[in-house]
Design goal:
Length: 302
């Protein structure tokens, strides 16, 4: 065998290895646009991660550095919802308490409770507020009641090794605080939504309750912006498209995980991007890339 033949064979093996790590399978070329969009962000210096899999077969449709751990902002609140739902299923009295807000729970940004006159809500109502508007005040009150250690233990029980809620929500983070609200891998987040949709998180009742809460989510600004749904009312199928998702937003962080079903197929997905949020252009390019992935998903499920 000549050196030129060996060189060509070695180059071909390396090309296949690179494709296997960072490309969708060949029969799923309709995800090429999303893959290219993430590649452009990575070329600009962003850290990108994505995982998309067929909900019914488990087949991986696209995977881009899906095991790396990136900040996921509010997506980690899902683990709090799972813990609360599991307690409700077990008829734990703590899951039906009425909780008051206190001064130490106060925090700004997302959510509506901080703008309301009500000083207390039941635990299930707080869960609904968190799912609908990623309510930070509701998160802190509920997390104080449930305990961060219980949420961490629940995540470990589910086998999540790279995904965790690290802290309560803070207006600013000091050197003694966790650097992020939550972190996660898209591999685990896509699995989590797939497991919720297949009634495999704790049990069927717990899974269904979490999905019902998350169906209230009003943030369709990222991947889900491609689906054409009403942000304020999409609990049922609209044009035969059914979505449940959770997003995470922070400075230099955009992340989304969810499950979408169409007339032909269903898919669980997760996308995370950490980028230099220096100007509006950079942010808009991230959002456009995530929307491109949503367009690929829409094409796949329909």
């Amino acid at each position: 065998m000549t050196d030129s033949v060996r060189t060509r064979e070695r180059s071909e093996r390396m090309r296949r290895l690179r494709q296997a790590r960072h490309r969708a399978p060949a029969e799923r070329e309709n995800f090429g646009r999303g893959f290219a969009a993430l590649g452009d962000l990575a070329y600009e210096g962003a850290q990108v991660s994505a995982k998309i899999m067929d909900l019914d077969t488990g087949r991986v449709l696209m995977a881009v550095d899906d095991r790396i751990v990136l900040p996921t902002a509010s997506i980690g609140k899902i683990l709090l919802l799972v813990e609360v739902s599991a307690r409700m299923t077990a008829r734990d009295p703590s899951a039906f308490a009425v909780l008051d807000k206190t001064a130490r729970d106060s925090v700004g940004d997302s959510g509506v409770w901080q703008h309301l006159q009500a000083t207390s809500f039941s635990v299930p109502d707080l869960a609904a507020l968190i799912a609908a508007t990623s309510d930070n005040l509701a998160t802190n009150v509920l997390l104080r009641h449930v305990g961060l250690e219980a949420v961490r233990a629940r995540g470990e029980e589910m086998g999540l090794m790279r995904t965790a809620l690290l802290d309560l929500v803070r207006d600013s983070r000091g050197p003694d605080d966790a650097p992020q609200l939550s972190v996660g891998s898209t591999a685990e987040l896509a699995w989590l939504f797939g497991a919720l949709a297949n009634n495999q998180v704790v049990d069927s009742l717990t899974s269904a309750r979490v999905l019902a809460w998350l169906s209230l989510n009003t943030d369709l600004s990222m991947v889900a912006s491609a689906f054409g749904l009403d942000p304020l009312a999409h609990r049922g199928a609209d044009h035969r498209t059914l979505l449940v998702n959770k997003t995470g937003t922070d400075t230099g962080v955009r992340a989304e995980a969810g499950v979408v079903r169409g007339r032909r197929a269903a898919a669980a997905y997760a996308v995370s991007v950490q980028f230099s949020d220096d100007d509006i252009g950079a942010r808009l390019r991230v959002l456009e890339a995530m929307r491109t992935i949503g367009m690929d998903l829409l094409e796949y499920v329909h």
